[in-house]
Design brief:
Length: 216
């Protein structure tokens, strides 16, 4: 069976600061055109939320409804993290193989000096782009969209997976819901309601999904 990723978003991510999208790639073909804006809203919000709650050097996967956000935070000196939002059946090892490769290539091709100051300014002001729109042009790093397309079928990643065996030795923290990564006293419903990046339609979609899950 072919399962795949919905989004890849790279963030400028320093502990204690808001995560700022640097670059994003999307594959929303499995959704109707009427759903795509809302799905993109929710996935970008989910990715930003979990990225901000992943410590440098940590990797964790968080399930929410039928999707999983796989997060890989590079060491603090790099100031960057990556999130792939995928179908819940997408193999964890493939997701982290993709993230590891993308983050390494991004740091090589797009030096931190090109985006760090702007990211810090946006984080301080709170003027974070919506829908995962990044401050780095996609033409400066087209590999994000290329890899998302190539990794839609995990079987196509076998070669890359075999040369990245070291990932097996790194602990991955698994969470059943996004609530599991929130800090004490944080409430996801309130985070959604206060979010300036989510449209009213997306907030209504979120509330409906939460009610449906609670009733199941």
């Amino acid at each position: 069976m072919v399962v795949g990723g919905v989004a890849v978003i790279l963030f400028a991510n320093q502990p204690g600061q808001q995560a700022v999208p640097l670059l994003s790639a999307w594959d929303l073909n499995s959704f109707s055109w009427m759903q795509r804006g809302t799905v993109q809203d929710m996935m970008a919000f989910m990715a930003k939320t979990v990225s901000e709650r992943t410590q440098p050097g940590q990797r964790q996967s968080i399930q929410e409804n039928n999707f999983t956000a796989h997060v890989h935070a590079r060491p603090a000196v790099d100031g960057i993290s990556g999130v792939i939002v995928s179908d819940s059946e997408y193999p964890v090892r493939v997701a982290y193989s993709l993230l590891n490769k993308l983050l390494e290539e991004f740091l090589m091709k797009v030096p931190k000096s090109r985006w760090n100051a702007q990211a810090a300014q946006l984080a301080a002001s709170g003027s974070i782009p919506s829908k995962g729109e990044g401050i780095v042009r996609s033409s400066d790093f087209p590999q994000a969209q290329d890899y998302l397309a190539r990794y839609q079928d995990p079987r196509q990643a076998d070669t890359i997976m075999r040369v990245q065996q070291e990932l097996d030795d790194t602990k991955i923290v698994l969470h059943n819901t996004i609530d599991s990564v929130l800090q004490r006293g944080e409430d996801l419903d309130k985070l959604v309601e206060k979010s300036g990046s989510l449209s009213q339609q997306s907030k209504m979609f979120y509330k409906s999904a939460r009610k449906t899950r609670a009733a199941a």
